[in-house]
Amino acid sequence: MEIKKATTIHDIAKALNLNSSTISRALNNHPRVSQTTRDKVKAKASELNYQPNNLAANLRTNKSNTIGVVIPFLSRYFFSTAIAGIEDVAQAYGYNVIITQTKDITEKEKESINTLLKSRVEGILISPAMYNDDIEHIEKAINQQIPIFCFDRYAEGFQTTRVIMDDRKTALLMCNHLIQQGAKKITVLSGYKTASIYSNRQKGIIDSYIKHDIDLKHLNIKEMELDTHKAYCYVKDLVEKGNVPDAIYALNDMTAFGAIKALNETKLSVPKDVLVVGFSNEPLSELFTPSLTTVNQPAYEMGKLVAKKLILHLEDNEELLTSETSILKSELIIRESSLRRRKKV
């Protein structure tokens, strides 16, 4: 019995009078190939019963068409939304995505980087762990000619492309809002300032105090792991000791939820007695009682942009080191939790 030879990209190229690279890009939905050509190529591939041999192609070209993503938490709304943007762009360019999480632990971040290098990723997108001041594992990847681009957070000590938000300005604007609502004594529930986002947000809050000529002795910044239970315990203890603030500025929404629970249990009303604001616009923030004032971050757009920058960098064979920074705008979402209710006259 005669064994029929498998159809190759070259067979499709010959049938359509196109070059093989165009056929490859069309089959991988590359945006530089027109939709008309993509449809024509896919129709001919189906007609000729073409089956791609990805392993052989990768071995031949020494390309895996895979990028790695390293994030602190898969469960956080911000990061899951950013991943959606990353995956949409990667798929459009014919790339696969491997996602790892560090839980904000440096050792897990090192393991993630090593795993991705062993998986032959072509580039890595990373939002560094909060407590990380060791970048040796990142330098190791760069020394292997693997570009690493940062999003949301960034690590000091190495040059790279960054897609971030203006955390300092955003925090200043939110603090301005609290002061305009009459708050002077503000407690800030912040992540550790070893992470760029929390360092910058703390600076923005201090900027606001200085702008309004308020003594910094009225500002209480508590660095902590940002989760609901830890915030609940800290705020309840604070209030029980008589240190009731005018406002609580939680630097993520889940922490704000814990603060509100503690205030409710100590018979303090939000926003009448204490204003509360968050950061990240979790889906629950609008449904919570009272609805939570927060910051809407462009997570999906951030994921799309950083993925596109990395893939174009890989496609265009640019120099490895780059230090371009893109800053995306955020939006204050003002809701019930930070608005004083006026007494009826």
UniProtKB/TrEMBL annotation:
Domain HTH lacI-type stretches: 7-61
Superkingdom classification of source: Bacteria
SMART domains per UniProt: HTH_LACI
Protein name: LacI family transcriptional regulator
Species whose genome carries this gene: Flammeovirga aprica JL-4
InterPro entries: HTH_LacI, Lambda_DNA-bd_dom_sf, Peripla_BP/Lac1_sug-bd_dom, Peripla_BP_I
Keyword Hydrolase (UniProt): no
Keyword annotations: DNA-binding, Transcription, Transcription regulation
